[in-house]
Design goal:
Blueprint: H1 22-41, H2 44-60, H3 68-95, H4 107-112, H5 115-126, H6 129-140, H7 145-152, H8 156-175
Length: 178
């Protein structure tokens, strides 16, 4: 065992009277920030990336740092802002529709669907955009109401009411009632 190393393989804490380094902050606070980012972006790998970017940004500004509390505040803000950016990029990607795409499905894809499934897919195409998005994200994407609200930029209550109206409309279209 190297001199000064702890039995569990961890490095010893810095001297109480010495200045804290970026490495000390990383070792002591990284996992707390990763847990925060996981709660925000709901993906461990993305959360790790967000935290790594936050520490990279802190490294760039390390010479202008006032104190350790300022560093932790900087990191917290950077993790939250980085997570928001990730969520914005996700929402943009989900809402992206390639230009010049036809709304009609190919004959091959329709032939592979059951008649009931075809009726539901056809009914989805007749719904207003927001109802269609909410239902597709919920039932085909498997997202929760909160995730749909985040992805579409609407409230959870609006997600619930939009889904309810969309399901009613599909039921009427597929059932043939006006």
């Amino acid at each position: 065992m190297p001199d000064g190393a702890l039995p569990n393989g961890a490095a010893p804490p810095p001297p109480a009277d010495g200045p804290r380094t970026l490495e000390d902050l990383y070792r002591e606070h990284r996992m707390r920030f990763v847990r925060l980012a996981i709660l925000l972006v709901d993906d461990p790998a993305t959360a790790e990336d967000v935290v790594q970017e936050a520490f990279t940004g802190l490294h760039r500004h390390w010479s202008r740092l006032r104190d350790e509390n300022a560093a932790l505040g900087y990191l917290r803000t950077a993790v939250v802002n980085g997570s928001r950016s990730v969520l914005r990029r996700r929402r943009t990607a989900r809402e992206y529709t390639p230009p010049h795409t036809a709304d009609a499905r190919s004959a091959e894809s329709l032939a592979m669907l059951s008649a009931e499934h075809q009726a539901v897919v056809s009914a989805l195409g007749q719904l207003p955009r927001r109802q269609r998005e909410v239902l597709v994200l919920r039932y085909y994407g498997g997202l929760s109401e909160a995730e749909i609200a985040d992805a579409t930029g609407i409230s959870r209550g609006t997600v619930k009411s939009t889904a309810s109206r969309g399901l009613d409309a599909i039921s009427k279209i597929v059932g043939g009632t006006p």
